[in-house]
Write the structure tokens for this entry.
Amino acid sequence: MSKRGKNTANAVAIFNIDDLSTWQKYRKGLCDTCHATCCTLPVEVTVSDLVRMTLVNEFEAEGDLKAIAKRLQKARIIDNFNHKTAIFTLARMANDDCLYLDSKTRRCTIYHQRPETCRKHPQIGPKANYCPYRPRE
Ligand code: SF4
């Protein structure tokens, strides 16, 4: 979901970011049977997202973003920070799942506070209007 993707070869995600034939055109209801594969892609977020996610307070958000990045990297909540674009990338679990994905239900545990990137997927993403769909097991 920038979702900026990558080639993914683990057991869960069997799509290739560069090969549209491994993606499915989004249609209503597709998410109901999906393994939430979109929640295994790297998620880019802004400081506003981090405030909504209650990881950063509004006062801190006005300050040094590098200091925020350092704190959240230490806490393993973000993987990296691009100071030129002021974009943070959320960390993921070893199996590529988002930290906020419930591994059993495959639902977002912060749905109402989720980042803009997630709200806009799949209309905006690595393959606009396509999903890295994989059926639930
Ligand atoms: S924040 Fe929620 S919707 Fe966004 S990738 Fe993580 S689990 Fe999925």
In short: The chain is about 20% helix and 10% strand.
